[in-house]
Amino acid sequence: MKIKLPIILVGIVLLLTACSSDDSEKKADIEKEEKTISKTVNKEEESTKEQEPTLDESWFGDWVFLSDDINGSIQIQKETDNQVSVYIEGSSISTVNNSSYGNAIEGSGTIEDNKIAFKRNIDGTCTGTLEKNDNMITLTTDSEACNTPQIYLDGEYIKADSIEQEPLITEENGEFFVYGVTLGDSPSFVKHMLGNPTFEGPSEDGFYPWVLEYDKPTATISIFEGLMNSIIVGNISLDEFTNGIPGEFTGKFYKTEDDTTLYLYNPENEHLLIYRAESEDLSTGSILFQHADGNFHVGVENGWIIETDSSWE
């Protein structure tokens, strides 16, 4: 009996070793299977993500409509995932009889690639789409439900936050520029440089057939026969005006006898830049940029407007 006991112990040890080996193999197989399942799930998730439409975030922000005769804007704000809020506005005023036309839609929608499908919030019956191709945006609406035959906002746009304000006064090849615009520019180019005006249409006093009014900067741009005819800029200091004059200006300097009005004149293209003081100490005023007219030339001929040597000192 004493001889058989070690044999039994060896047998037990071998049996336990075999069981342990089987458990390790089973554990390894389970881990391998779990890794395989995990890889399969990850691949399926990646495949699902690839199939989801990409969100075009270039939609978001305020858009300026680059039109010569319509004041239009589109605002797109992200809500959740591909859900957005939409505000579309357009207005136009006739120069013939001052009749106005305008419409605005405030709604919510969904972005899918280069399209936004939206509906009006107030009732949901007005629906439409916005389709973007680079800076060209096309608007399609259910015109009857939206209470308008057409909003007339198809065309080229620019993002408002991409506009950088130019210096007050610059000169290039003898031409003056005020905030980057000059005489003869189109209304659409003015919007490209300054953004959406706060008002667009005939001037209230009827003096100008068409104006674009801005709050920032404070400016009124008159349009005659489809082109920029003048610009008036308010709230300008005398230092801003004189410091903005190009050092290489080769035109003529004029002023009135009381020094309240200063003139820069280029005889070659008739560009006339005027500073009119509006304070007792002459430190603040406004700028008028236009072509020299009969009033200026008559003033020079009669001595009301006096030429100076090279400055106003």
From TrEMBL:
Q: This protein's superkingdom?
A: Bacteria
What name does UniProt use for this protein? Uncharacterized protein
Q: Taxonomic lineage per UniProt?
A: Bacteria, Bacillati, Bacillota, Bacilli, Bacillales
